[in-house]
Design a protein that fits this description.
The structure holds 2 protein chains of 2 kinds.
Chain A: E1 2-8, H1 13-22, E2 29-35, E3 45-47, E4 50-52, E5 57-66, H2 68-82, E6 92-98
Antiparallel strand pairs in A: 1-5, 1-6, 2-5, 3-4
Helix pairs in contact in A: 1-2
Chain B: H1 27-31, H2 40-67, H3 73-100, E1 102-104, E2 109-111, H4 132-150, H5 160-183, H6 203-221, H7 237-256, H8 264-292, H9 297-311, H10 320-344, H11 352-366, H12 373-383, H13 389-421, H14 428-433, H15 435-440
Antiparallel strand pairs in B: 1-2
Classes of the chains: A alpha+beta, B mainly alpha.
């Protein structure tokens, strides 16, 4: 089991969600997060005639727990949908980590069956 | 409504239909031989009504603003606030002139060079005892809120520049002529039939015209991306509820102020406004309880609006029992129309047509069956002895059909023109990142993120 964590731009959430659904990945967790990286374009805001660059930029985080055979499916679905054009700085990152255990609370099942 | 009393004392062209034979309401007429004196009571109420109607615009901004997704909250509220600026200017420049001047171009609109920039009314006191400035400003608030209402139909998917151009053109070519037809002393709808087409405070001019224009624009511009497959959740029902509260309060100025008096007619309009709004709200939540098992806050405020809209044309002529009936009918018909919208699948995002258009049409037509006896008696006398519900209904139907027809044609032409020349619909990228950031460089809820 693996945990796929993707940080994407907020305007791509709908497209990524639809792409994941189309690929058969239906169990996801989404949160609003902020952060900074190399992303510098199209982030300045306006405040009474001033351009203000925010310290932290809003992003969306998706957490997807997968059995091993679904990891590449999920990654491809995200890569397909999360890019602006052919890809721009700020489109985000995907992290994949080992998932030690997964437990479904209702049934107390453990492991791959619980995902 | 909104009688434009002639400015020469003692020569009232035609009293407001609801006030037929009530010259005593206008003491200025009797008291002064030449220039009417200011009636401070009436003027005070009209000043307050003007402020109340203006308060409806931020109310509408909150109502609509709460219903859209988080990323569009500012862009949506901006539509209402921009109308306060743009139409506020236009109205003084030429809007009042086109609406309340004398017939021009065969009665298509009004014109009186004295009214350009309100130059000629610096010292004018209307026969109602109100300085004409107050009347002009009161009317201007109606011109402001109408394009702001339309914006609910194409919420979350239009460019700000396109909206501004559309608002300017719509105000000049749709609102001002309609306002002239219905409310100017020489407007042809005002003079249709025995005692005029009844539109006390803007059923045709404001609500039907806004609803129809919204529907036309929503159909032409197309649905929001993802509609209806993706659920579009309101960002703040709390704000929507507060907006609805402001609208209800402001509506007392809208309707009771439209008597342009401070007396019996004002009291009647205020009472039926209250009754219809309450009846609409109650009916809507009963329908929801029966249909869905739960009463929703959005349902309750939709019922309030349906009741307020339906009584708008009728506030001068119906009795409280009629207002009760109209509120109930409006909630039933609007609820059905929203179910139908889901079936048909068009994206009237915030139901500008589903509530304002539909309840406006219902009100303009159904009010005929609840007219108070004294009004009908005056109409019979004015017609020379033969005037009934059937004839008045025919007048109302003609007024509604003319409004719908004219608004459909002109607003379709405008929306096509603006889309082709200036760009009206947002690009997909802008729509997905949201109006707040892509159009205005701001975000509505910065506090949600820790920056």
């Amino acid at each position: 089991m693996q945990l796929v964590t993707a940080i994407i731009q907020p305007d791509k959430l709908d497209a990524v969600r639809e792409s994941l659904l189309a690929a058969g990945i239906t169990r996801i967790t989404v949160s609003r997060v902020t952060g900074h990286g190399r992303h510098q374009q199209n982030i300045e805001r306006l405040y009474r005639g001033q351009k203000v660059v925010p310290n932290l930029i809003p992003k969306i985080r998706l957490d997807i727990a997968c059995n091993d055979e679904f990891v590449e499916v999920a990654v491809d679905a995200i890569l397909y949908a999360a890019k602006h054009g052919d890809g721009e700085i700020g489109d985000g990152k995907i992290f994949i980590t080992e998932l030690k255990e997964c437990i479904r609370i209702r049934t107390e099942e453990r492991g791959g069956a619980a995902i | 409504m909104t009688r434009r009393f002639t400015r020469t004392a003692g020569k009232i062209n035609r009293l407001f239909p609801a006030c037929l034979g009530m010259t005593a309401l206008f003491p200025a007429v009797a008291a002064a031989a030449d220039a009417p004196a200011v009636d401070s009571g009436t003027t005070a109420w009209m000043l307050m009504s003007t402020a109340l109607v203006l308060l409806m615009v931020p109310g509408l901004a909150m109502f609509y603003g709460g219903l859209v997704r988080t990323r569009n909250v500012l862009g949506t509220m901006m539509h209402s606030f921009a109308a306060m600026g743009i139409v506020g200017v236009l109205w003084v420049v030429c809007g009042y002139c086109m609406s309340f001047g004398s017939n021009m171009l065969g009665g298509w609109c009004g014109w009186n060079p004295d009214y350009l920039l309100l130059r000629g009314i610096d010292e004018t006191i209307l026969d109602a005892g109100v300085p004409e400035y107050v009347f002009a400003m009161f009317q201007g608030k109606f011109a402001i809120i109408t394009p702001a209402l339309i914006a609910g139909a194409f919420a979350e998917r239009v460019r700000f520049g396109g909206y501004c151009v559309y608002t300017i053109l719509w105000s000049l070519l749709v609102y001002n002529p309609l306002c002239h037809w219905v409310w100017a002393a020489d407007g042809f709808l005002f003079n249709m039939g025995a005692a005029g087409a009844i539109d006390f405070a803007g059923g045709t001019v404001v609500h039907i015209s806004a609803g129809i224009s919204g529907l036309v624009a929503a159909l032409y511009l197309g649905a929001r991306r993802g509609y209806p497959a993706t659920a579009m959740h309101p960002n703040s029902m709390v704000m929507t509820l507060m907006g609805a509260g402001l609208l209800w309060v402001g509506w007392f100025g809208f309707n009771a102020g439209s008597s342009v008096s401070s007396g019996l007619d004002t009291a009647r309009a205020l009472t039926v406004t209250q009754v219809a709004a309450a009846a609409g709200a109650t009916t809507w939540i009963v329908i929801e309880m029966l249909h869905l098992g739960k009463a929703t806050t959005l349902g309750l405020v939709s019922g309030i609006l349906a009741g307020l809209v339906v009584i708008t044309p009728a506030a001068g002529v119906v009795v409280p029992a009629g207002a009760l009936a109209l509120g109930i009918i409006a909630a039933l018909v609007c609820y059905a129309s929203l179910l139908l919208k889901e079936r048909l699948g068009y994206d009237d995002s915030l139901d500008a047509f589903g509530i304002h258009g539909v309840a406006g049409i219902v009100g303009a037509l159904a009010l005929t069956f609840f007219i108070r006896d004294s009004w009908m008696a005056s109409a019979v006398a004015a017609a020379g002895g033969n005037w009934g519900v059937g004839q008045q209904f025919w007048v109302q139907l003609k007024a509604v059909l003319l409004t719908v027809g004219y608004t459909t044609v002109v607003s379709l032409a405008l929306v096509v023109l603006v889309e082709k020349l200036f760009g009206f619909r947002l690009s997909e990228a802008e729509e997905m990142s949201g109006m707040d950031y892509s159009l205005h460089g701001e975000r509505g809820y910065g506090l949600i993120n820790p920056d």
